[in-house]
Amino acid sequence: MGFRYFAEQSVGKIAFLLGSTSPFLPSPGIPISDANIVVDLTDPLAATLAALRGGAIVTWATPFAGGAFDSTQLPIPGVVAGLTLRLQGIDVDVASATLHGSPGVELRILP
Q1: Which H or E run contains 109?
Q2: pTM score, two decimals?
Q3: Is 99 exposed, middle or buried (0-12, 13-18, 19+ CB in 10 A)?
Q4: Cα–chain center distance at 91
Q5: Closest C-alpha among 19, 23, 12 to residue 51
Q6: What is the pLDDT of residues 49-101, one digit of tens each?
Q7: Between vectors from CA 56 to CA 106 and to CA 48, what angle results, nearest 5°?
C-alpha cells in the first residue's frame, strides 16, 4: 500500500501520512496551525504511519501540474482484510512552522 499526496502550494515542504483504524474525530478535529487534524492521534498506527510515510513534496508534471509526494510501498498482510483505515495527508512548512492538511479519506482493505 502506498499513497500520493498532491499539494501544489507545498513544493519543497515535508509531507507525511496520518492513519488510524478509529473513527474520524468530530468536526473540526484538532486545529493545529492551518490544519484540522481529523485522524485519532491516540491510535499508535498514526505515529507509525507518519514515521514510515514521510518525505519531500517535489514538482509533479503529469497528470497534475504542481507538487506531489509518493510514499514508499508497504506490503499489507492478508489478516487485515476487512479493516477500514482513516487517512489524512499533512504537509509541514518548516521555515514558517505551519501545517496544512488534506481532508480525511477512508480506505477499506479488501481480501
Answers
A1: none
A2: 0.78
A3: middle
A4: 8
A5: 19
A6: 776 667 777 776 666 667 777 766 777 777 888 889 898 888 888 888 888 88
A7: 50
